[in-house]
Design a protein that fits this description.
The chain is built from two helices and six strands, in the order βαββαβββ. The protein has 109 residues and is α+β, with helices and mostly antiparallel strands. The radius of gyration is 18 Å and the shape is elongated. Bound molecules: ligand 2BA. Ligand 2BA binds next to β5.
Length: 109
């Protein structure tokens, strides 16, 4: 068995969730925050059999799209601009960041 963790953009959350349910995958959805942009994203936790992982990855890839987000300038409270981002910067995000982990045990009580 594998545990798949998929970090996706919030815009893709609903269509992916619908597709996962329709595909018979059991999922848990977590509200998460990207460390770099500090913007909300969504992490899906999906436990599945080894032979279904390829289908799952295909489904995630199909529903998650890459987009450009603007990283806003950061302001310095003390007026010292050294090291601060002074202009908006385009950052390419996604489609999805996916981790596939081996599961040692799965118990469902
Ligand atoms: P964020 O950390 O907010 O990152 C958003 C996007 O910013 C990233 O898109 C990447 O293009 C860029 N970025 C991230 N860290 C950077 C850095 N140190 N320097 C320059 N650019 C950087 P993605 O790579 O598609 O990642 C989307 C989201 O997936 C991330 O949001 C984070 O929540 C998660 N993620 C990505 N890689 C991860 C990893 N190795 N471990 C855990 N979470 C990860």
């Amino acid at each position: 068995m594998k545990l798949v963790l998929a970090v996706v953009q919030d815009q893709d959350r609903n269509s992916l969730q619908d597709a996962l349910v329709e595909g018979g995958f059991h999922t848990t959805k977590l509200a998460s925050t990207g460390g770099f942009l500090r913007a909300g994203n969504t992490t899906f936790m999906i436990g599945t059999e080894d032979d279904k992982v390829d289908d799952l990855l295909q489904l995630i890839g199909h529903h998650c799209h890459s987009r450009t987000q603007v990283m806003a300038p950061l302001s310095s409270l003390d007026g010292n601009a050294d090291g601060y981002l002074m202009h908006p910067v385009d950052v390419e995000v996604g489609g999805a960041t996916v981790f596939v982990l081996d599961v040692d045990q799965f118990r469902h009580f």
